[in-house]
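Justification of computing resources. Each target in the renewal requires a structure prediction run like the one illustrated here; the chain below, 348 residues long, is used simply to show the kind of job we budget for.
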Amino acid sequence: MRRITRIATVGVASAALALSATACGGKSSSGGGDNKDPKAAIAYDIGGRGDQSFNDAAFAGLEKAEKDLAIKGTEAEPSEGEGDPDKVQRLTELARAGNNPVIGVGFAYAPAIAEVAPKFPKTTFGLIDDTSKTGKNIANLVFNEEQGSYLAGVAAAKVTKSRTVGFIGGVETPLIKKFEAGFVQGVKDTNKDVNVKVQYLTQPPDFGGFSKPDLGKAAAQGQIDAGADVIYAAAGLAGSGSIEAAAKAKKWAIGVDSDQYNQKGLAAYKEYILTSVTKDVSDSVYNLIKSVKDGKPQSGEVRYGLDKDGVGLATSNPAFTKLTDVTAAVDKAKADITAGKIDVKTAP
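Resulting structure tokens:
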């Protein structure tokens, strides 16, 4: 298998991105290269690969495409405190290098994709978690996060002994408020007497709440000190800090985006990761790459919901599956949502 090329970027004022595709034999090429071999690229969100969550899920989709579709994959990392011009430069260089599709991992790429996509009409651009910017060659890969979060709320309300649970959002944006809305509704529909403590780590334009584990750890510890015995964080890399705090206090943590029980970087805390709200970011990346390779590129809104298992609740932790009353309540909630009996809110 080919190794995926990883690119670290340091901003628009620095030297232009050097793009290389490294084959098993160790040879590499830079610049535009040839297009005989299909190539695809993902540009990471804040926190980059190694966040044990959102970005890592996107990488899994690219890695699967490399194995199954014989494509060359390229990753591009964000820089600290970067702005839209940095993202424009990154996407432009990835497109010039012949990558197709080029996928922006996260809503922060919306303005940059809107600027770059018209300049490369033969290249498909994937935009994850945003529908505000559209175009003939833009695929908006979006999810019903509120539905998966509702199931997490049901589980949290069933397992809490203190009748206090916590929600931690990385940055207070409309997207993360979908997680909050679904979680709170799921808790209250299950047991109206359970108190939900809500905290956001940062406010836009400060997006550090997605990248700083210490912030998540401190917030979780504060909620635990206030009586919470279940913590659900939608905070990217910062969420790993909340999981650490919960585990050390021997309280339940609920992961997000990927099945965090199975993340190697969180192995020390997995005993206390009750479940995770999953988003099929991996398949969304893979499916877009495959559609381009098949000559039928996706475009417009491509939605992943509970009805198609595009979102859900992980069952990897045996401790969770043993709680049959909890899993039964979750299964019923899932059936009611997919049947239209429960309308999950998208805003608090």
